[in-house]
Specification:
By secondary structure, the chain is of the alpha+beta class. 42% of the residues lie in helices and 18% in strands. It contains ten helices and 14 strands. It has an eight-stranded mixed β-sheet with strand order 2-1-3-10-5-11-8-7, sandwiched between helices.
Length: 269
């Protein structure tokens, strides 16, 4: 309904009523926000008991880490390598980015690029040997951490020890409600951006399946198939996503192959 009203607001007959129209849209957004917060709170309060994990500290040097990087973007991979050395985690695997423009040359670059992102993130979560691992950190090669290794490890350890949390997003922008659950973490919905996140094994199959299913929508020029839009279905209904209450990471300024231009730093909010 909200999207329909927003599109109507561009029509000439509505322009004359724009102040009233904006107030109506703002009221609808507030109502939707309150409803989303209520739904998330009810889901969190009604969460089912889950078997806990041992409360062992997570060391970044022992955590499996993959970075998604296009083969022709050695500049971004070099920056990522510097980040990992600073955090004393020099061991990581590179998952090649997918050149969506080569797969779908006949559609606009933002859509073909988004298809590449969907496929690359699917490949990344599926690339781990889960027989001996309980977590996987997935990074895009432009992630920039804003804390030291001790703070990052403490946050990941808290996420690991909480059996009710399924995905930890370390960077991005939260466009939905958030409920604080500790001094460091909140449960959220509406996370936009996937520069860095940590997943538990049971989330691999549903996320990879969802992202691959979005390719057909993107090929038909429907943005609802984009990976950080489509995973909101999981956030709202099936899983609990955690987000830091303090700044942990962001996307550094760099040239974006999808946008085709230099992008400023993308702060996490």
């Amino acid at each position: 309904m909200l999207k329909t009203l927003e599109s109507l607001g561009t029509r000439p007959v509505i322009r004359e009523l724009r102040p009233l129209y904006r107030r109506l849209l703002a009221a609808i957004r507030r109502l939707r926000g309150r409803r989303a917060l209520r739904d998330l709170a009810q889901r969190w309060e009604a969460r089912r008991p889950r078997t806990g994990t041992p409360s062992t500290a997570i060391r970044l040097s022992d955590l499996p880490i993959v970075v998604i990087s296009l083969p022709n973007r050695r500049d971004r991979l070099d920056e990522f390598e510097k980040e990992m050395k600073r955090l004393k985690a020099p061991h990581y695997r590179v998952v090649p980015g997918v050149a969506g423009k080569e797969l779908y040359p006949s559609i606009p670059g933002d859509f073909s690029g988004a298809i590449g992102c969907n496929l690359a993130h699917s490949n990344a979560v599926e690339s781990n040997d889960w027989s001996n691992e309980q977590l996987l950190m997935i990074c895009e090669d432009d992630v920039e951490f804003q804390v030291d290794v001790d703070a990052l490890e403490a946050l990941i350890s808290e996420f690991h020890a909480n059996p009710h949390l399924d995905v930890l997003c370390l960077a991005g922008r939260v466009r939905g409600p958030r409920i604080p659950i500790s001094d460091n973490l909140a449960v959220v919905t509406g996370v936009v951006g996937q520069a860095c996140y940590v997943v538990k094994p049971h989330m691999v199959e549903p996320l990879a399946r969802l992202w691959r299913s979005g390719v057909s929508d993107l090929a038909r020029l429907k943005l609802k198939g984009k990976n950080d839009i489509i995973w909101n279905k999981v956030q709202r209904r099936d899983a609990f996503f955690a987000f830091p209450r303090h700044k942990i990471a962001r996307q550094r300024a760099s040239y974006s192959d999808i946008q085709g231009r230099e992008m400023p730093p993308q702060e996490s909010t």
